[in-house]
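Progress against Task 2.4 (sequence-to-structure conversion) is shown through the following example record, which the project officer requested during the mid-term review.
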Amino acid sequence: MQVNYGENEIKTLLQKVRIFNNDIGAYQVFAITEHFDYTVKLSNGKILIKLEDLQDDEHNAMTPERLTTIAKRYIPLNSQATIQNQVNHGQQESKKQSEKKKSGFNKTFLIIAIAIIVIIVGFAIFQKLNSSGSYGASDSYNEKVMTIEEIERSQPTTFLSADGAYRENFWGDKMKVKCVITNRATVASFKDAVVRITYYTKTKTELGSKDYTIYEVFPPNSTKTVDMKIDNYKNVNSIGWDVIGATAY
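Structure tokens generated for the chain above:
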């Protein structure tokens, strides 16, 4: 069984976690803490990944709730002082690690050996309990385990957004709209997006809204512009738009 994980495993898990926090930056380097967890330095901050997170991800056992919990551990890099503190902390940690290696190699080796044995025994017990469980309990567990694509396909409004520009026609009873639909999903495609147009007065009072379905396919990581002609009403000063629904394609 794999105990120490490397760059590839961390990057794979970060890709899933980034779905729940788009602010998480690119991977740079990692360090293993005294508790065998992983402190990962990012291009714009850092994040803590626990050993059990990598183990569960290795066995395809991550759930949206677990990924959200990991995403909340992200700490952004806000100032130069923070950067300097991290550098100083890293130097101190390196010095401590060097001293520990010189004075306690045997102790460290013994701790690692014990941890490996505990993990192996724990995994064996888990496998035994899991194999002896009921069929219904196994089905319930598998329903909670979702791939990146399944997560994205189940939440179209999280990844689809609308924007654009508009102008009135000559008579003022219609508006010509260039609606821009953006799909920020990494692997999931969507179709038949439902866009809700909301009408506002010049005092930002909402006059009403109307839904329009755009029968197009929206691939992952794409932007598509669609021409629309919508109704206009008296006292309308501006409009807003939101994607309120779509179908996984």
